[in-house]
Design brief:
Elements lengths: L19 H7 L8 E5 L2 E4 L9 E2 L2 H7 L8 E5 L2 E9 L1 H6 L4 E9 L7 H11 L10 E9 L2 E9 L6 H5 L9 H21 L4 E2 L8 E3 L5 E3 L6 E2 L8 E2 L11 H6 L1 E2 L1 H17 L15 H4 L1 H5 L18 H14 L10 H15 L26 H17 L11 H6 L20
Parallel strand pairs: 3-7
Antiparallel strand pairs: 1-2, 4-5, 5-6, 6-8, 7-8, 9-12, 10-11, 13-14
Helix pairs in contact: 6-8, 6-12, 8-11, 11-12
EC number: 2.7.11.1
GO molecular function, one term: ATP binding
Keywords: ATP-binding, Cell membrane, Kinase, Membrane, Nucleotide-binding, Phosphoprotein, Receptor, Serine/threonine-protein kinase, Transferase, Transmembrane, Transmembrane helix
Length: 441
Protein backbone atom coordinates (compact mmCIF):
# COMPACT_ATOMS: atom_id res chain seq x y z
CA UNK A 1 0.00 0.00 0.00
CA UNK A 2 2.70 2.48 1.09
CA UNK A 3 5.44 1.01 -1.06
CA UNK A 4 6.32 2.21 -4.53
CA UNK A 5 5.85 -0.13 -7.45
CA UNK A 6 8.78 0.21 -9.80
CA UNK A 7 9.13 -0.78 -13.43
CA UNK A 8 11.79 -3.48 -13.47
CA UNK A 9 14.74 -3.02 -15.77
CA UNK A 10 13.94 -6.51 -16.94
CA UNK A 11 10.95 -5.83 -19.13
CA UNK A 12 7.69 -7.69 -18.65
CA UNK A 13 5.40 -8.93 -21.39
CA UNK A 14 8.20 -8.36 -23.92
CA UNK A 15 7.92 -4.57 -23.64
CA UNK A 16 11.20 -2.82 -24.34
CA UNK A 17 12.57 -0.29 -21.88
CA UNK A 18 14.18 2.61 -23.75
CA UNK A 19 16.61 5.15 -22.42
CA UNK A 20 15.71 8.79 -22.99
CA UNK A 21 18.94 9.37 -24.91
CA UNK A 22 18.07 6.48 -27.22
CA UNK A 23 14.69 7.96 -28.12
CA UNK A 24 16.16 11.43 -28.44
CA UNK A 25 18.61 10.09 -31.02
CA UNK A 26 15.88 8.08 -32.78
CA UNK A 27 13.85 11.26 -33.33
CA UNK A 28 16.82 13.52 -34.13
CA UNK A 29 16.52 15.41 -30.88
CA UNK A 30 12.71 15.44 -31.06
CA UNK A 31 12.90 17.48 -34.25
CA UNK A 32 9.71 19.33 -35.17
CA UNK A 33 10.12 18.06 -38.73
CA UNK A 34 9.35 14.55 -37.46
CA UNK A 35 6.16 15.41 -35.59
CA UNK A 36 3.25 13.47 -37.07
CA UNK A 37 0.60 14.63 -34.63
CA UNK A 38 -0.02 16.09 -31.21
CA UNK A 39 -2.16 14.08 -28.81
CA UNK A 40 -3.13 16.12 -25.75
CA UNK A 41 0.27 16.93 -24.22
CA UNK A 42 2.39 14.39 -26.05
CA UNK A 43 3.84 14.32 -29.56
CA UNK A 44 3.82 11.28 -31.81
CA UNK A 45 6.87 11.15 -34.04
CA UNK A 46 7.80 9.45 -37.24
CA UNK A 47 10.40 6.89 -36.23
CA UNK A 48 13.66 6.71 -38.12
CA UNK A 49 12.87 3.03 -38.49
CA UNK A 50 10.57 3.07 -41.51
CA UNK A 51 7.15 1.43 -41.33
CA UNK A 52 5.25 -0.58 -43.93
CA UNK A 53 8.36 -1.02 -46.10
CA UNK A 54 8.45 2.63 -47.14
CA UNK A 55 11.96 3.80 -47.92
CA UNK A 56 13.38 6.70 -45.95
CA UNK A 57 15.43 8.89 -48.29
CA UNK A 58 18.05 11.45 -47.37
CA UNK A 59 17.57 14.94 -48.79
CA UNK A 60 20.97 14.80 -50.47
CA UNK A 61 19.94 11.56 -52.19
CA UNK A 62 16.81 13.12 -53.67
CA UNK A 63 18.66 16.28 -54.61
CA UNK A 64 21.09 14.17 -56.62
CA UNK A 65 18.22 12.11 -58.07
CA UNK A 66 16.64 15.27 -59.51
CA UNK A 67 19.91 16.95 -60.57
CA UNK A 68 19.62 19.58 -57.90
CA UNK A 69 15.84 19.89 -58.38
CA UNK A 70 16.39 21.08 -61.92
CA UNK A 71 13.54 23.04 -63.50
CA UNK A 72 14.02 20.94 -66.62
CA UNK A 73 12.79 17.91 -64.65
CA UNK A 74 9.60 19.52 -63.31
CA UNK A 75 6.56 17.42 -64.29
CA UNK A 76 3.96 19.13 -62.11
CA UNK A 77 3.33 22.17 -59.95
CA UNK A 78 0.70 23.22 -57.43
CA UNK A 79 0.07 24.89 -54.09
CA UNK A 80 2.10 22.11 -52.45
CA UNK A 81 5.27 22.85 -54.45
CA UNK A 82 6.80 21.02 -57.40
CA UNK A 83 6.96 17.44 -58.64
CA UNK A 84 10.21 16.38 -60.30
CA UNK A 85 11.16 13.39 -62.36
CA UNK A 86 14.11 11.58 -60.82
CA UNK A 87 16.15 8.38 -60.70
CA UNK A 88 17.04 6.57 -57.46
CA UNK A 89 18.75 3.30 -56.71
CA UNK A 90 16.33 0.37 -56.71
CA UNK A 91 15.46 -0.89 -53.23
CA UNK A 92 16.90 -4.36 -53.85
CA UNK A 93 20.23 -2.84 -54.81
CA UNK A 94 20.57 -0.51 -51.82
CA UNK A 95 21.56 -3.31 -49.45
CA UNK A 96 23.51 -5.57 -51.80
CA UNK A 97 25.50 -2.90 -53.61
CA UNK A 98 23.80 -3.35 -56.98
CA UNK A 99 23.46 -0.63 -59.57
CA UNK A 100 19.80 -0.99 -60.57
CA UNK A 101 17.84 2.23 -61.01
CA UNK A 102 14.23 3.20 -60.46
CA UNK A 103 12.42 6.08 -62.18
CA UNK A 104 10.38 8.05 -59.66
CA UNK A 105 8.37 11.24 -59.18
CA UNK A 106 9.59 13.39 -56.29
CA UNK A 107 7.10 15.81 -54.72
CA UNK A 108 8.84 18.55 -52.75
CA UNK A 109 6.69 20.36 -50.22
CA UNK A 110 6.95 24.12 -50.55
CA UNK A 111 7.80 25.85 -47.29
CA UNK A 112 5.51 28.70 -48.34
CA UNK A 113 2.69 26.64 -49.85
CA UNK A 114 -0.80 26.04 -48.50
CA UNK A 115 -0.58 22.27 -48.47
CA UNK A 116 1.22 21.60 -45.20
CA UNK A 117 2.89 19.05 -43.04
CA UNK A 118 -0.32 17.38 -41.91
CA UNK A 119 -1.36 16.62 -45.48
CA UNK A 120 2.14 15.29 -46.10
CA UNK A 121 1.67 12.97 -43.12
CA UNK A 122 -1.72 11.87 -44.50
CA UNK A 123 -0.05 10.68 -47.69
CA UNK A 124 2.75 8.85 -45.88
CA UNK A 125 0.47 7.03 -43.47
CA UNK A 126 -2.36 6.19 -45.86
CA UNK A 127 -0.38 5.13 -48.91
CA UNK A 128 1.98 3.28 -46.59
CA UNK A 129 -0.68 0.76 -45.60
CA UNK A 130 -2.85 0.30 -48.69
CA UNK A 131 -2.23 -1.56 -51.91
CA UNK A 132 -4.46 -1.42 -54.98
CA UNK A 133 -3.69 -1.36 -58.71
CA UNK A 134 -5.69 1.86 -59.11
CA UNK A 135 -3.97 3.80 -56.32
CA UNK A 136 -0.58 5.38 -56.90
CA UNK A 137 2.28 3.60 -55.13
CA UNK A 138 4.31 5.56 -52.58
CA UNK A 139 7.95 4.43 -52.69
CA UNK A 140 9.15 6.44 -49.71
CA UNK A 141 9.60 9.83 -48.11
CA UNK A 142 12.15 12.29 -46.77
CA UNK A 143 11.93 14.44 -43.63
CA UNK A 144 14.97 16.49 -42.66
CA UNK A 145 15.44 19.65 -40.63
CA UNK A 146 18.81 21.29 -41.17
CA UNK A 147 20.44 24.59 -42.05
CA UNK A 148 18.42 24.71 -45.28
CA UNK A 149 15.19 24.60 -43.30
CA UNK A 150 12.52 21.93 -43.07
CA UNK A 151 12.58 19.57 -46.05
CA UNK A 152 9.67 17.20 -46.63
CA UNK A 153 9.39 15.15 -49.79
CA UNK A 154 7.36 12.21 -51.10
CA UNK A 155 8.68 9.71 -53.63
CA UNK A 156 6.17 7.94 -55.90
CA UNK A 157 6.35 5.46 -58.71
CA UNK A 158 6.69 7.41 -61.95
CA UNK A 159 3.51 7.67 -64.00
CA UNK A 160 4.95 7.91 -67.50
CA UNK A 161 1.77 9.14 -69.18
CA UNK A 162 1.21 12.00 -66.74
CA UNK A 163 -2.34 12.87 -65.68
CA UNK A 164 -5.73 12.53 -67.33
CA UNK A 165 -5.98 16.32 -67.22
CA UNK A 166 -2.78 16.64 -69.28
CA UNK A 167 -4.31 14.49 -72.02
CA UNK A 168 -7.74 16.13 -72.05
CA UNK A 169 -6.24 19.62 -72.17
CA UNK A 170 -3.86 18.74 -75.01
CA UNK A 171 -0.64 19.07 -73.01
CA UNK A 172 0.58 15.86 -74.64
CA UNK A 173 0.67 15.12 -78.35
CA UNK A 174 -1.44 11.96 -78.42
CA UNK A 175 -5.24 11.81 -78.16
CA UNK A 176 -6.93 9.27 -75.91
CA UNK A 177 -9.11 6.90 -77.92
CA UNK A 178 -12.72 6.36 -76.91
CA UNK A 179 -12.04 2.85 -75.62
CA UNK A 180 -9.06 4.10 -73.59
CA UNK A 181 -11.28 6.76 -72.03
CA UNK A 182 -13.82 4.13 -71.01
CA UNK A 183 -11.09 1.94 -69.51
CA UNK A 184 -9.66 4.91 -67.61
CA UNK A 185 -13.13 5.69 -66.26
CA UNK A 186 -13.60 2.10 -65.12
CA UNK A 187 -10.17 1.93 -63.47
CA UNK A 188 -10.70 5.21 -61.62
CA UNK A 189 -14.11 3.94 -60.51
CA UNK A 190 -12.44 0.80 -59.15
CA UNK A 191 -10.07 2.96 -57.13
CA UNK A 192 -12.95 4.89 -55.57
CA UNK A 193 -14.92 1.68 -54.96
CA UNK A 194 -11.92 0.31 -53.06
CA UNK A 195 -11.79 3.42 -50.86
CA UNK A 196 -15.54 3.44 -50.23
CA UNK A 197 -16.44 -0.23 -49.94
CA UNK A 198 -13.52 -2.66 -49.84
CA UNK A 199 -11.44 -1.63 -46.82
CA UNK A 200 -12.09 -2.14 -43.11
CA UNK A 201 -12.99 1.54 -42.95
CA UNK A 202 -14.44 3.97 -45.47
CA UNK A 203 -12.35 6.73 -46.98
CA UNK A 204 -13.83 9.69 -48.85
CA UNK A 205 -11.38 11.04 -51.43
CA UNK A 206 -12.87 14.56 -51.37
CA UNK A 207 -10.76 15.92 -54.24
CA UNK A 208 -11.50 13.59 -57.16
CA UNK A 209 -10.61 15.32 -60.44
CA UNK A 210 -8.70 14.68 -63.66
CA UNK A 211 -5.39 16.08 -62.37
CA UNK A 212 -5.47 13.48 -59.56
CA UNK A 213 -5.89 10.58 -62.00
CA UNK A 214 -2.41 9.54 -63.14
CA UNK A 215 -1.72 7.18 -66.05
CA UNK A 216 1.02 4.57 -66.18
CA UNK A 217 2.82 3.40 -69.33
CA UNK A 218 -0.20 1.24 -70.27
CA UNK A 219 -2.69 4.05 -69.50
CA UNK A 220 -3.91 2.29 -66.37
CA UNK A 221 -5.35 5.00 -64.08
CA UNK A 222 -4.14 5.48 -60.51
CA UNK A 223 -5.63 7.90 -57.99
CA UNK A 224 -3.15 10.25 -56.35
CA UNK A 225 -2.99 13.09 -53.81
CA UNK A 226 -4.76 11.92 -50.66
CA UNK A 227 -3.97 15.03 -48.62
CA UNK A 228 -7.63 16.05 -48.37
CA UNK A 229 -9.08 12.55 -47.88
CA UNK A 230 -11.37 12.06 -44.90
CA UNK A 231 -12.49 8.96 -43.04
CA UNK A 232 -16.18 8.24 -43.58
CA UNK A 233 -18.93 8.63 -40.97
CA UNK A 234 -18.96 6.45 -37.88
CA UNK A 235 -21.45 3.61 -37.61
CA UNK A 236 -25.01 4.87 -37.34
CA UNK A 237 -24.21 8.31 -38.75
CA UNK A 238 -25.17 9.45 -42.23
CA UNK A 239 -22.42 11.95 -42.95
CA UNK A 240 -19.33 13.76 -41.75
CA UNK A 241 -19.62 17.49 -41.10
CA UNK A 242 -16.51 19.31 -42.22
CA UNK A 243 -15.15 22.50 -43.72
CA UNK A 244 -15.66 22.66 -47.48
CA UNK A 245 -12.41 22.08 -49.36
CA UNK A 246 -11.53 20.75 -52.78
CA UNK A 247 -11.63 22.15 -56.30
CA UNK A 248 -14.23 24.40 -57.88
CA UNK A 249 -16.41 22.57 -60.39
CA UNK A 250 -16.12 19.11 -58.83
CA UNK A 251 -17.70 19.46 -55.37
CA UNK A 252 -21.20 18.06 -54.80
CA UNK A 253 -23.89 20.71 -54.18
CA UNK A 254 -24.98 19.35 -50.79
CA UNK A 255 -21.36 19.41 -49.63
CA UNK A 256 -20.87 22.97 -50.92
CA UNK A 257 -24.03 24.23 -49.23
CA UNK A 258 -23.97 22.34 -45.90
CA UNK A 259 -20.49 20.87 -45.38
CA UNK A 260 -22.06 17.40 -45.09
CA UNK A 261 -19.65 14.91 -46.62
CA UNK A 262 -20.46 11.34 -47.71
CA UNK A 263 -19.04 8.87 -50.19
CA UNK A 264 -21.77 10.06 -52.58
CA UNK A 265 -19.90 13.38 -52.74
CA UNK A 266 -17.13 11.50 -54.57
CA UNK A 267 -19.76 9.96 -56.85
CA UNK A 268 -20.86 13.45 -57.93
CA UNK A 269 -17.24 14.37 -58.69
CA UNK A 270 -16.94 11.19 -60.74
CA UNK A 271 -19.96 12.27 -62.81
CA UNK A 272 -18.21 15.56 -63.59
CA UNK A 273 -15.10 13.67 -64.73
CA UNK A 274 -17.23 11.47 -67.01
CA UNK A 275 -18.42 14.58 -68.82
CA UNK A 276 -14.83 15.78 -69.09
CA UNK A 277 -13.95 12.46 -70.75
CA UNK A 278 -16.87 12.84 -73.15
CA UNK A 279 -16.30 16.48 -74.07
CA UNK A 280 -12.57 17.01 -73.60
CA UNK A 281 -13.37 20.15 -71.60
CA UNK A 282 -12.48 20.99 -68.00
CA UNK A 283 -15.14 21.41 -65.30
CA UNK A 284 -14.70 25.18 -65.16
CA UNK A 285 -12.98 27.06 -67.98
CA UNK A 286 -12.64 30.81 -67.46
CA UNK A 287 -11.24 31.43 -70.95
CA UNK A 288 -14.51 30.55 -72.68
CA UNK A 289 -17.58 32.79 -73.11
CA UNK A 290 -19.50 33.11 -69.85
CA UNK A 291 -22.31 30.82 -71.04
CA UNK A 292 -19.79 28.03 -71.70
CA UNK A 293 -17.53 28.34 -68.66
CA UNK A 294 -19.32 25.77 -66.47
CA UNK A 295 -19.22 22.37 -68.12
CA UNK A 296 -22.36 21.00 -66.46
CA UNK A 297 -24.39 23.98 -67.65
CA UNK A 298 -22.96 23.86 -71.16
CA UNK A 299 -23.80 20.19 -71.81
CA UNK A 300 -27.49 20.46 -70.83
CA UNK A 301 -29.04 21.30 -74.23
CA UNK A 302 -26.96 18.67 -76.04
CA UNK A 303 -27.84 15.93 -73.56
CA UNK A 304 -31.53 16.82 -73.71
CA UNK A 305 -31.67 16.56 -77.53
CA UNK A 306 -30.38 13.28 -78.97
CA UNK A 307 -30.00 14.92 -82.40
CA UNK A 308 -27.55 17.43 -80.93
CA UNK A 309 -25.70 15.00 -78.67
CA UNK A 310 -22.80 14.54 -81.08
CA UNK A 311 -22.01 18.26 -80.78
CA UNK A 312 -20.71 17.87 -77.23
CA UNK A 313 -18.22 15.11 -78.11
CA UNK A 314 -14.52 15.91 -77.92
CA UNK A 315 -13.56 17.06 -81.44
CA UNK A 316 -10.14 15.44 -81.05
CA UNK A 317 -11.84 12.06 -81.33
CA UNK A 318 -12.57 13.03 -84.96
CA UNK A 319 -15.77 10.99 -84.96
CA UNK A 320 -13.97 7.76 -83.98
CA UNK A 321 -16.33 6.68 -81.20
CA UNK A 322 -19.60 4.84 -80.64
CA UNK A 323 -22.39 7.37 -80.27
CA UNK A 324 -24.56 4.82 -78.47
CA UNK A 325 -21.87 4.09 -75.88
CA UNK A 326 -21.26 7.83 -75.41
CA UNK A 327 -24.97 8.33 -74.71
CA UNK A 328 -24.88 5.45 -72.20
CA UNK A 329 -21.88 7.02 -70.48
CA UNK A 330 -23.73 10.34 -70.37
CA UNK A 331 -26.75 8.60 -68.81
CA UNK A 332 -24.44 7.13 -66.17
CA UNK A 333 -22.95 10.56 -65.52
CA UNK A 334 -26.48 11.89 -65.00
CA UNK A 335 -27.11 9.22 -62.36
CA UNK A 336 -23.95 10.29 -60.56
CA UNK A 337 -25.09 13.93 -60.80
CA UNK A 338 -28.54 13.35 -59.31
CA UNK A 339 -29.49 16.06 -56.81
CA UNK A 340 -30.42 13.60 -54.04
CA UNK A 341 -27.17 11.95 -52.85
CA UNK A 342 -29.01 8.79 -51.80
CA UNK A 343 -30.17 8.29 -55.40
CA UNK A 344 -26.64 8.25 -56.76
CA UNK A 345 -25.15 4.79 -57.43
CA UNK A 346 -22.39 3.24 -55.36
CA UNK A 347 -19.01 3.18 -57.06
CA UNK A 348 -19.07 -0.63 -57.27
CA UNK A 349 -22.27 -0.28 -59.29
CA UNK A 350 -20.60 2.34 -61.48
CA UNK A 351 -17.75 -0.11 -62.17
CA UNK A 352 -20.27 -2.69 -63.38
CA UNK A 353 -22.18 -0.21 -65.54
CA UNK A 354 -19.03 0.99 -67.29
CA UNK A 355 -18.03 -2.64 -67.74
CA UNK A 356 -21.28 -3.27 -69.63
CA UNK A 357 -20.63 -0.27 -71.89
CA UNK A 358 -17.14 -1.58 -72.65
CA UNK A 359 -18.42 -5.12 -73.16
CA UNK A 360 -20.91 -3.95 -75.78
CA UNK A 361 -18.04 -2.53 -77.85
CA UNK A 362 -15.95 -5.70 -77.81
CA UNK A 363 -15.98 -8.28 -80.63
CA UNK A 364 -18.18 -11.32 -79.87
CA UNK A 365 -15.27 -13.59 -78.93
CA UNK A 366 -13.99 -11.07 -76.37
CA UNK A 367 -17.31 -10.39 -74.63
CA UNK A 368 -17.88 -11.51 -71.05
CA UNK A 369 -21.13 -13.14 -70.00
CA UNK A 370 -23.42 -10.44 -68.60
CA UNK A 371 -25.09 -10.91 -65.23
CA UNK A 372 -28.91 -11.10 -65.16
CA UNK A 373 -30.21 -7.56 -65.11
CA UNK A 374 -32.83 -6.23 -62.71
CA UNK A 375 -35.76 -4.18 -63.95
CA UNK A 376 -34.29 -0.95 -65.36
CA UNK A 377 -34.96 2.22 -63.39
CA UNK A 378 -36.14 5.32 -65.23
CA UNK A 379 -33.24 7.54 -66.22
CA UNK A 380 -33.01 10.62 -64.00
CA UNK A 381 -33.30 13.98 -65.64
CA UNK A 382 -30.06 15.85 -65.95
CA UNK A 383 -29.72 17.62 -62.61
CA UNK A 384 -26.61 19.70 -62.87
CA UNK A 385 -27.13 21.42 -59.58
CA UNK A 386 -24.46 24.07 -59.25
CA UNK A 387 -26.45 27.06 -57.95
CA UNK A 388 -24.99 29.91 -59.97
CA UNK A 389 -25.05 32.58 -57.29
CA UNK A 390 -23.61 30.35 -54.53
CA UNK A 391 -20.94 28.95 -56.82
CA UNK A 392 -19.91 32.46 -57.82
CA UNK A 393 -19.63 33.43 -54.13
CA UNK A 394 -17.42 30.41 -53.50
CA UNK A 395 -15.24 31.21 -56.52
CA UNK A 396 -14.86 34.80 -55.32
CA UNK A 397 -13.90 33.54 -51.86
CA UNK A 398 -11.28 31.24 -53.36
CA UNK A 399 -9.95 34.06 -55.54
CA UNK A 400 -9.64 36.38 -52.55
CA UNK A 401 -7.70 33.74 -50.61
CA UNK A 402 -5.52 33.21 -53.66
CA UNK A 403 -4.61 36.90 -53.71
CA UNK A 404 -3.83 36.83 -50.00
CA UNK A 405 -1.34 34.00 -50.56
CA UNK A 406 0.30 35.20 -53.77
CA UNK A 407 -1.62 32.71 -55.91
CA UNK A 408 -0.41 29.63 -53.99
CA UNK A 409 -3.81 28.69 -52.54
CA UNK A 410 -5.35 25.49 -53.80
CA UNK A 411 -6.50 23.53 -50.77
CA UNK A 412 -7.24 24.01 -47.12
CA UNK A 413 -5.20 21.99 -44.65
CA UNK A 414 -6.78 19.59 -42.15
CA UNK A 415 -6.99 20.65 -38.53
CA UNK A 416 -5.92 17.34 -36.95
CA UNK A 417 -6.66 18.49 -33.42
CA UNK A 418 -10.21 19.29 -34.47
CA UNK A 419 -10.53 15.90 -36.16
CA UNK A 420 -9.32 14.05 -33.08
CA UNK A 421 -11.72 15.92 -30.83
CA UNK A 422 -14.73 15.13 -32.98
CA UNK A 423 -16.81 12.11 -32.08
CA UNK A 424 -17.19 11.19 -35.75
CA UNK A 425 -14.93 10.83 -38.73
CA UNK A 426 -11.75 10.33 -36.74
CA UNK A 427 -8.71 10.25 -38.96
CA UNK A 428 -5.84 8.65 -37.08
CA UNK A 429 -3.90 6.67 -39.67
CA UNK A 430 -0.72 6.88 -37.60
CA UNK A 431 -1.84 3.97 -35.43
CA UNK A 432 -2.96 1.64 -38.21
CA UNK A 433 -1.21 -1.69 -38.40
CA UNK A 434 -0.51 -2.98 -41.92
CA UNK A 435 -2.76 -5.98 -41.28
CA UNK A 436 -5.77 -3.80 -40.48
CA UNK A 437 -6.32 -2.90 -44.13
CA UNK A 438 -7.50 -5.31 -46.79
CA UNK A 439 -5.25 -5.38 -49.84
CA UNK A 440 -6.49 -6.06 -53.34
CA UNK A 441 -4.49 -8.08 -55.83
Amino acid sequence: MNSDMMLSCKRANDLRVFKFAELKAATKGFSRSLVIGEDMNSDMMLSCKRANDLRVFKFAELKAATKGFSRSLVIGEGGFGCVYRGVVMAADDVDDGGDGCLDVAVKQLSRNGFQGHKEWINEVNFLGVVNHPNLVKLVGYCAEDDERGIQRLLVYELMRNKSLEDHLLGRVNSTLSWMTRLQIAQGAARGLAYLHEEMDFQLIFRDFKTSNILLDEDFNPKLSDFGLARQGPAAGLSHVSTVVVGTIGYAAPEYLHTGRLTSKSDVWSFGVVLYELITGRRAVERNLPRSEQKLLEWVKPYVADSKKFHLLMDPRLEGDYSLKSAQKLSALANKCLTKNPKSRPKMSEVVEMIGKIINDLLPPQAKTEPKPEAEPEPEPELELQFAAEETEELIEDIDSRKQETNGNYKKKVFDFKELRNRSIGRLDWRLWAPGSVKHSA
